[in-house]
Amino acid sequence: MKLVDQTLSGFVDLTASNAPAPGGGAASALEGAMGAALTAMVCSLTQGKKKYEEYQELTAGVADQAQALKAKFVDVIDRDTEAFNAVSAVFAMPKDTDEEKTARSGAMLTALKGCTETPFEMMELSYAALQLTDRVVGKSNASAASDLGCAALSLKAAIQGAWLNVLINIAGMKDQEFADRYRAQGEALLAKALPLADSIYEKVLHSL
Question: Which of 8, 39, 159, 168 has the smallest number of Cβ neighbours within 10 A?
Fold first, then answer.
């Protein structure tokens, strides 16, 4: 059964078990999905409200984009676990001969790259969702302002959790150029996303 088809209790129970996956990557993707969903919800709660008439077009557009990002986060939940499983499968490959060792090493590099690309995608999605969330702070239903703060916190957790997964997979990777590129790109994303998440949270906090 796909992770996204689990019940909520089933997902958290599986995460809490001795199964190696789902782990932090899938959990980070779920955090991101919740953050995007909360932003979409706040925008939806703003629709049709006369008090926010001037922001109807803005919140309608952000709601649609947040829904799309939520769907991408949900899709990556299982893809992250599949990428991890590909790494685990390499450990079962034989390594008795030089040819087998070479094949195993190549397969491991390919699998680790997949395990890096998936959480990096989460990071990109998280930053995109934070940008959307920021656009509607102070321009959406004030009764749901706290939910935008929660969205920012979820998205911050998502991007930082994803970053840890990037780092653990590029550590010691034989393709140094690949590792250096993802490290630089990840650090650049964090430098933009984390202050934005904190700014959203502070703006919401001071509005309550």
Answer: 8
| pLDDT tens sequence across 161-183 | 999 999 999 998 889 999 999 99
Distance in angstroms (rounded) separating the CA atoms of residues 122 and 119? 5
Q: Measure the CA–CA gap between 115 and 83, rounded to whole angstroms.
A: 5
Using a cut of 0.85, tell me whether the model's pTM lies above it: yes
Average of per-residue pLDDT values in the chain: 93
* Cα 48 to the center of its chain, rounded Å: 31
CA distance 186 to 179: 10
Query: Using one digit for the tens of pLDDT, what is the confidence trace for 8-64?
Result: 898 899 899 998 878 899 999 999 999 999 999 999 999 999 999 999 999 999 999
Domains of the chain and any CATH numbers:
24-78+116-207 (1.20.120.680)
Q: How far apart are CA 203 and CA 12, in angstroms?
A: 32
Q: Which helix (H) or strand (E) holds 42?
A: helix 24-46
Closest to 126 in 3D by CA, of 192, 57, 59, 60: 192
User: Nearest-CA neighbor of 55 among 131, 129, 134, 138?
Assistant: 138
d(CA 103, CA 114): 17
